[in-house]
TrEMBL record:
This is Beta-glucosidase. GO terms for biological process: cellulose catabolic process. Belongs to the glycosyl hydrolase 1 family. PANTHER family: GLYCOSYL HYDROLASE, LP05116P. It comes from Fictibacillus phosphorivorans. Coiled coil: none annotated. Keywords: Carbohydrate metabolism, Cellulose degradation, Glycosidase, Hydrolase, Polysaccharide degradation. The keyword Hydrolase applies. It catalyses: Hydrolysis of terminal, non-reducing beta-D-glucosyl residues with release of beta-D-glucose. Pfam families: Glyco_hydro_1 (PF00232). The active site is at residues 162, 350. GO terms for cellular component: cytosol.
Length: 455
């Protein structure tokens, strides 16, 4: 594998998963705090009250990032830290992100900031959350103050992280906060997230005339039918509609997929919430497209479901989450995006894996993760050889952290975190990633070259 000079290597985290400091520095609760406190929602009722204590240890964490040698770091802002109450700006919360951004820059690391990575303030939820169209205005308050205070020192903006998770896992399947199971709500919530994305892009470009690149990050998963049967094919098409097209089509084509609108109409009482002009705003052009890739999906038809089809068993090797390790399918996904959706530069804003890590004599020999990372980076390199224009890669995650409904039971970090002592310990994957970053690939004899591959 080989990567040219302009390709950027990075690593990623999110506010709720690492910061802790639950009620400190003026922060109020988010929907994830209350979700965690609700029995039966999160593994052993773990929560993000302390997490990696990053709010207090960010200096040390910046040094870890520096040691890895990556050029960029993707993190998100905690909305209830910045707006602990509706319309009330908390300067102390904003200061934290100013400090973090400034310190990263001083250390030569480019900050990539995500505005929303799922920690909706509780006050917003109490007024209906994303189901309420006013959420777009609340989000714009957040976006505006972040742009005003941080734009000068930021290298790229990501409006939303994975609206599929925030919308469908949160409001339809109920596995994420706020834990609702209502498809009508979910489709509205997604619409308002996407609308707030488009508005933020327009504001940054038109009102502020900023040149900082801005985009959205979607979690995409290529979906395959278990067999060639017409029923399985239909199931795959519908699962693809639910997982991918429901987001790709509005963002790149300015319309929701009609087949899915029809299918959803069994649960969605009316599409009146889509107002004139909304779709144009949602499809406002961005500067890049962010993709989080973890796995493929393979589905088989089940008569009981319209679009939430049973994931079929496959004989692929799995990560510690039970997800198929599927780098070839990642290539299929990117080729399809190029063919059907966009020419924008692509950033892989997350890719990584959980495995059952064992700390032994101060080392973690996480062969599985090393292998996963190498395979996916090889795929990125191959795709760029095909001319797919992937401009960067952010490894998820810098360090073990609060893995949502799995709590601290699942470790995605390349740096091991001892959650009692808060010690950070490099896993083998961190050493390996640092090496790949340094060499801009593997066995790459000429680091300055843009074209020669030696592998
Ligand atoms: C991301 O979400 C999040 O952005 C991040 O915060 C999180 O910590 C990280 O990933 C790790 O989970 O069952 O094989 O069909 C990941 C979203 C959506 C990825 C569902 C896997 C199903 C895989 N995920 N998906 S499969």
């Amino acid at each position: 594998m080989h990567f040219n000079k302009s390709f950027v290597f990075g690593t990623a985290t999110s506010s709720y998963q690492i910061e802790g400091a639950r009620l400190e520095g003026g922060r109020t609760l988010s929907i994830w705090d209350t979700f965690c406190d609700t029995p039966g929602k999160v593994y052993q009722q773990h929560n993000g009250s302390v997490a990696c204590d990053h709010y207090y240890r960010f200096e040390e964490d910046i040094q870890q990032i520096k040691k890895l040698g990556v050029e960029t770091y993707r993190f998100s802002v905690s909305w209830p830290r910045i707006f602990p109450e509706k319309g009330v700006l908390n300067a102390e919360g904003m200061d934290f992100y100013k400090k973090l951004t400034k310190r990263l820059r001083e250390e030569g690391i480019k900050p990539a900031i995500t505005l929303y990575h799922w920690d909706l303030p509780l006050w917003a939820h109490e007024e209906g959350g994303w189901v309420n169209r006013e959420s777009v205005d609340w989000f714009m308050d957040l976006a505006k103050v972040c742009f005003q205070e941080l734009d000068a020192e930021v290298d790229s903006w990501i409006t939303h992280n994975e609206p599929w998770c925030a919308g469908f896992l949160g409001y339809h399947q109920g596995f994420h906060a706020p834990g609702h199971t209502n498809m009508d709500e979910a489709v509205k919530a997604v619409h308002h997230m996407l609308l707030s994305h488009g508005k933020a892009v327009q504001y940054l470009k038109n009102e502020l005339q900023s040149k900082t690149p801005i985009g959205i990050t979607l979690n995409l998963s290529p979906i395959y039918a278990k067999t060639d049967s017409a029923n399985d094919q239909l199931a795959a098409n519908n699962a693809d509609g639910y997982s991918n097209r429901w987001f790709l089509d509005p963002v790149f084509k300015g319309q929701y997929p009609v087949d899915m609108m029809n299918l959803f109409s069994k649960y969605v009482h009316s599409y009146d919430f889509i107002k004139a002009g909304d779709m144009e705003i949602i499809s406002t052009s961005c500067d890049f497209f962010g993709i989080n890739y973890y796995s493929r999906g393979i589905v088989e038809f089940s008569a009981a479901n319209d679009f939430l089809h049973r994931g079929a068993h496959s004989d692929y090797e799995k990560t510690g989450m039970g997800w198929d390790i599927a780098p070839e399918e990642f290539k299929d996904l990117i080729r399809r995006l190029r063919q059907e959706y966009t020419d924008l530069p692509i950033y892989i804003t997350e890719n990584g894996a959980a495995f059952d890590d064992v700390l032994e004599n101060g080392r973690v020999h996480d062969h599985g993760r090393v292998d996963y990372i190498e395979k996916h980076l090889q795929a990125v390199s191959d795709l760029n050889d095909e001319g797919m224009n992937i401009e960067g890669y952010y490894l998820w995650s810098l360090m073990d952290n609060f893995e949502w409904s799995f709590g601290y039971d699942k470790r995605f970090g390349i740096i091991y975190v001892d959650f009692d002592s808060q010690e950070r310990i490099w896993k083998d994957s961190a050493y390996r990633y640092a090496e790949i970053v340094k060499n801009r690939g593997t066995n790459n004899s000429n680091k300055e070259t843009d074209t020669i591959s030696v592998s």
